[in-house]
Amino acid sequence: MLYRMINPPEISWIAILPVLLLSATAMLTMVADLWTDGPDREGLGWIGLVGLMATAIAAVALWNTKLTSFAGAVVVDRYGLFFTLLFCVAAGLTLLMSMSYLEQTDIRTGDYYSLILFSTVGMVVMATAADLIVVFLGLEVMSIAAYALAGIWRSQVRSNEAALKYFLLGAFATGFLLFGIALLYGVAGTTTLTGIAQTASGATAEQRTLLIAGMALMIVGFGFKVAAVPFHAWAPDVYEGAPTSVTALMAVGVKSAAFAAFARIFMHTLAVMSPDWSAVLWVLAVLTMTVGNVTALLQRNIKRMLAYSSIAHAGYLLVGMVAGGELGGSAILFYLLAYTLMTLGAFSVVIALGRRGQPNENLEDYAGAGFRSPFLGMAMSIFMLSLAGIPPFGGFVGKFYIFSAAVKSGYIGLTVIGVMNSLISVYYYVGVLVRMYMTDGGVEITQPSSRPYLFATLVVAVAGTIALGLFPSTLFEVARQSFLALG
Amino acid sequence: MTAVPIGWFLILGSLLFSIGALGVLIRRNVIIIFMSIELMLNAVNFVFVAFARQLHSLDGQVMVFFVMTVAAAEAAVGLAIIISVFRNRETVNADEFNLLRW
Question: pTM for the full model?
Fold first, then answer.
């Protein structure tokens, strides 16, 4: 009669529908790979796009609900769904650009597409996790797929090295995150976020000490994943060495997923402890913005420059976390959306200007490119100006929300440093445009890519960046509602 | 029988974790670095089990199973990456991976 003792947890299948659909698609691409041939297996990309579309539809359909599943370990609220949609957009655009990019490379396996989808599954799990075990699982599903993706161009030594560095430092960071989880578990006696929040609100002095130690270790772990200074050393190397489409996914998806879990745990679960962690994040934010922007000035390789730029953007997002509250949280969500579109766009331009055996990744190669390919020049101008935070693009509005949240919470000094950093960043972003439009020479690009996918990616990214800049209030309201769903 | 206080478990766990972290920072052979990371993960497992025993809750022990499984998956991917690096470079010394500035 032993079987009577097992009480299966309540599983709401509807709640996990998005992640189920996405996992099914990822497995389907793996199987379908057996029946496809041809050099770069575009068809698998299409299967992935359809699956992502279905996932997005499921997420939209669940928008007005708040469901929990697996005995409260997974919570599907607007916050999680917002990120699910964000990851669908990021992964969809990455797949689209990959379908063009892979013909420049020697990546000839269908696994590439499955790995991108599995990585996305991990991101969605992280964003909807309500238990630290699930956060850890999501993080690892995402990261292990990303390690493999970074090294998937096996014949290229740079790709190998990038994968190795990413793997070693990623696993190292996981150790810190796990130790933090262990300490929080020791204090609260549970790994669920609600249980930890209860313990944190009535913590004794002894419990507080352990909680603070646990939080510090988790900040190190998440700091690595979002590439915050001083845990950023891996990012430029990995971003430069990995295949460009994978770099785009890492810069956008992995970072957003880490922020999704980071913000859920710190701004919601451990919100009562914010006097303890906000000072640490203040220092991290200042370091991250300053080191990211100043080092980006010195870069000669566009992927490396974008890597430092993505570090700097992590700094702006940390400002949002320090600011806290409803405004800070909503600003983070809005900013991540804008950041996703403009960064993916910038990486697609990098891909569009590269050719097989001739990656054209140095800034010198961009000389005169704005005149040779007017559309790419225009798109790159929009992305660079948006990343620099110049109106009327999405990046400007995102920065505006973040800094106004910081001012409202009384962090005037942090805002001043942030705005000054924004000014520094204008120099290197506009530097790219100066190369493209005001210098001669450069590499004559032989023939344009034969496929329309990159064009489609660019159109979506340009449209999104402009729309976020011109009509921010609707999307900010969506972001606000998503963040409020945490409470 | 006297119970060992939880503090001792925490000290031992932190010690093992620190040895692992130091190993990652000091050693230059990629395989040893990877072993040090595994040591860090196992130190965490040890802390989880100690807490689970003290709190009379199974969550910590379940977590250990997850960590072990994930570490195995990570090892598979990690060793594959190390092999593919070795094929191209014929070395596993971290100092020689200088194509990208470390």
Answer: 0.94
